[in-house]
Amino acid sequence: MQEPEEKKIALELLETEQAYVSRLHLLDQVFYTELMREAKAGKTVPEEVVRMIFSNISSIYQFHAEFFLPELQKRMEDWNCNPRIGDVIQKLAPFLKMYGEYVKNFDKAVELITAWSEKSPPFQELIADIQKRKVCANLTLQHHMLEPVQRIPRYELLLKDYVRKLPPESPDRGDAEKALEMIFMVAKHSNAAIAEMERLQNLWVVYQRLGLEDDIVDPSNELIKEGPIQKLSTRNNSTSEKYLFLFNNMLLYCVPKVIQVGAEFQVHLRLDVDGMKVRELNDTQFPHTFLVSGKQRTLELQARSGEEMNAWIK
């Protein structure tokens, strides 16, 4: 008898979950535990560094080892009289939000491993020693740490496949479709957390380039465009090099600093986007020029090309 397609996928889910739990065991019970023990003995790195590297891996490990894997195993043993996994995955889905923290922390964790391996030879030696063990299968700590980052997309793919292969009359159809929707939302939540973190990091870098001026630093701002621009002076028919930062709520008109200690730019003028008007100027002497007028004042600016001018106006 050929096994039904949906059962094969459910078995694949169980097998990959078993392998995944061993990987989590390695991360939490071997790497984290041993590195923490050495940190507490004051031999390698501060305890806080180890905590920051492994984020909330212990909670993730416990959840999968003590709850999800046993529930899946039970289901697969009873498959012949109760062929369903949708309800178990629905119970799992809300807990997957825990991954948001781990995923968001991943790049930072990898940076910390690199930085402290250079600073602390005993730390590097301990990691190398664990990596030599058979259980590591010749893979690095960083490689093993990537596994939780890739796990939710894997659930999503397997479950999509499972729903596709389910016969229309299957008792698991309703539950499996709902579970897939929940997993999809969690994956979105995790991606949104990463996007938000990247946005804040990029914003912080911009604020540093502007010298961290109090009235400008606001985490809710969004940088839309930045770049060099020429300022037109009608008095003596000349142009001078300036730099613009356009946020969702303000345009910063800046001057590049000659001596770049600390800040890269000095903010000369801030125009509120609210009530701002922008229009192209047809100036034969100075092509690609446009006018920006706000409540504070009006600027005549020149871009390097028609394309660049249109991008700013837009």
Automatic annotation (TrEMBL):
Could you name the Gene Ontology cellular component terms for this entry?
cytoplasm; cytoskeleton
InterPro entries (UniProt xref) = DBL_dom_sf (IPR035899), DH_dom (IPR000219), FYVE_RhoGEF_PH (IPR051092), PH-like_dom_sf (IPR011993), PH_domain (IPR001849), SOS1_NGEF_PH (IPR055251)
Question: Which organism's genome codes for this protein?
Answer: Campylorhamphus procurvoides
For this UniProt entry, the molecular function terms from Gene Ontology, in alphabetical order, are: guanyl-nucleotide exchange factor activity; zinc ion binding
| Name recorded for this polypeptide | FGD2 protein
| Residues of the signal peptide | none
Compartmental location:
Cytoplasm, Cytoskeleton
Q: Which domain of life is it from?
A: Eukaryota
Q: Which GO terms describe its biological process?
A: cytoskeleton organization; filopodium assembly
List the lineage, top down: Eukaryota, Metazoa, Chordata, Craniata, Vertebrata
Which keywords accompany this UniProt record?
A: Cytoplasm, Cytoskeleton, Metal-binding, Phosphoprotein, Repeat, Zinc, Zinc-finger
**Pfam families reported in the protein's UniProt record:** RhoGEF, SOS1_NGEF_PH
Domain DH residue range list: 5-193
Q: Which SMART domains match?
A: PH, RhoGEF
Domain PH, first and last residues per copy = 222-314
SUPFAM superfamilies for this protein: DBL homology domain (DH-domain) (SSF48065), PH domain-like (SSF50729)
